[in-house]
Design goal:
Elements: E1 3-9, H1 16-28, E2 37-40, H2 42-50, H3 58-77, E3 81-85, H4 91-102, E4 110-118, H5 121-130, H6 138-147, E5 158-163, H7 168-180
Parallel strand pairs: 1-3, 1-4, 2-3, 4-5
Helix pairs in contact: 1-7, 3-4, 5-6
């Protein structure tokens, strides 16, 4: 069975984390002996280590980037699937990170999937409003929406697009079928 490295990308409040958690539950509920999936999320790391989900500090972000890379390498080298649940708007940075991680892992048994959550600004703003107390400033969502590029160009990785407006369970089921189903036949 190949190890999967999955990179979610999309603007804030597009459903990445909700789908990631649902997909993790599905994969990790498969009986013993099956590979498990681990997840990295910058917001969760900020909250865990700083007690602040929305604060931004350039030095700390660099530390998070280093930790993310080391975590991904360790996960894959230890036979775990890796799920990167982050905005990943800048395509060149994402591809550079993936190539670096690949250079330090067993490529023969690893498959990379990039999942793009097709932006829907209205849905993202509504979801952000529902966060109550943990809202992202609207200008940040607008900025990332304007920077978002859906087309990754000519890449050698699996690229899957999901609809941000679709229900979380529907997107998680779809991704499980596309990425994992053939490895986990009953």
């Amino acid at each position: 069975m190949t190890t999967k490295m999955i990179f979610f990308r999309g603007i804030q409040c597009s459903g990445k984390t909700s789908v990631a958690l649902e997909l993790m539950n599905k994969v990790n509920s498969i009986p013993l002996g099956a590979k498990k999936i681990v997840r990295f999320n910058r917001d969760d790391m900020r909250k865990m280590s700083l007690g602040n989900t929305l604060g931004f500090d350039r030095d700390y972000e660099d530390t998070l980037s280093d930790f993310r890379t080391d975590f991904a390498i360790a996960a894959v080298n230890n036979g775990l699937h890796y799920l990167d649940d982050n905005t990943n708007v800048k395509v060149d940075q994402l591809l550079r990170s993936i190539r670096y991680i690949e250079s330090r892992t067993d490529l023969v048994r690893t498959k990379v999937h990039i999942v793009t959550f097709r932006p829907d600004l209205e849905t993202s703003l509504i979801r952000n409003f529902a966060r109550m107390g943990h809202m992202i400033p609207e200008n940040i969502i607008l900025k990332f929406n304007n920077q978002f590029v859906s087309d990754l160009g000519n890449i050698s990785y699996s690229h899957i697009t999901v609809d941000s407006k679709a229900p979380v369970i529907e997107n998680a089921e779809y991704l499980f079928d596309v990425i994992f189903k053939k490895d986990y036949k009953p």
